[in-house]
Amino acid sequence: MTISSGGHVTGVTGRVALVTGASRGIGAAVRDRLAAAGTLVGALDLDIGEPQDPAQVAAFTCDVRDPEAVEAAVRLVEQELGPIAIAVNVAGVLRHGPLAQLGEDDLRELFEVNALGVIRICRAVAGPMVRRRQGAIVNVASNAGHVPRVGLAAYGASKAAVIAFTRHLALELAHAGIRCNSVSPGSTDTAMLSALTSADRAIAGDAGRFRLGIPLGRVAQPADIAEAVLWLASERARHVTMQDLVIDGGAGLTG
Ligand SMILES: NC(=O)c1ccc[n+]([C@@H]2O[C@H](COP(=O)([O-])OP(=O)(O)OC[C@H]3O[C@@H](n4cnc5c(N)ncnc54)[C@H](O)[C@@H]3O)[C@@H](O)[C@H]2O)c1
Description:
The chain has helices at residues 25-36, 67-80, 104-132, 153-173, 191-196, 199-204, 222-233; strands at 16-20, 40-45, 57-61, 84-89, 136-140, 179-185, 244-247. The protein is an alpha/beta fold and 255 residues long.
């Protein structure tokens, strides 16, 4: 699917965005969508990946499990690109299986990256955003943060934490005009989905595992998620805050 890119997007074009998990999958799609709309993107990841358009994207190594690395990366993005107006937390990990089979390392990893990583980045950008009275934050959660899934109890809990955190932060920062929202993708065509299941199985569902399948009959492309992130970051969504947008083709029957 092709989603048109380019064109002026108020609140996005000419601004600086920080995107975590930006080397591949959904994060790379967000990075590229924002860059195509004229945003200067500070792309953070464990591994900075393939070189990107140097006019629009600067890549920085950052492990969101490390509080000092997060503070340093935010300072570096501001020094090199300018004041961060948009922060998009995409970095995430998946550990799945029966809870009894998950180790302590799995649990720590899920919450260090998926929950605390998001909270740390938001903590680092919130102060400067409040001082400037400008900012939009979009955090990537999951439909598993809403809908129970077999084998995803701890992952789902880490994503429910993101949804709740984002709503609380939105309330805390609203006085400065800063908006905070999350998006909750369902099955999306990335390496993370391949680690869990196949696209065909996700679409068909699995009654034995209480999965209903995907009513729209397709898995999402990373660009589908990026388009929603762009909208939430832009002035087009200027009166939208404290929301979670589920983008799962109807899989969770949520609404
Ligand atoms: N793919 C799906 O079906 C799906 C569904 C719902 C939610 N999500 C969420 O979307 C987000 C992106 O998922 P994806 O499918 O693109 O995954 P992915 O595994 O393809 O990419 C995740 C990226 O995050 C980075 N990352 C992991 N740990 C990090 C750390 N400690 N510090 C910095 N970067 C780190 C990885 O290096 C990688 O580039 C995740 O938060 C995921 O939980 C994905």
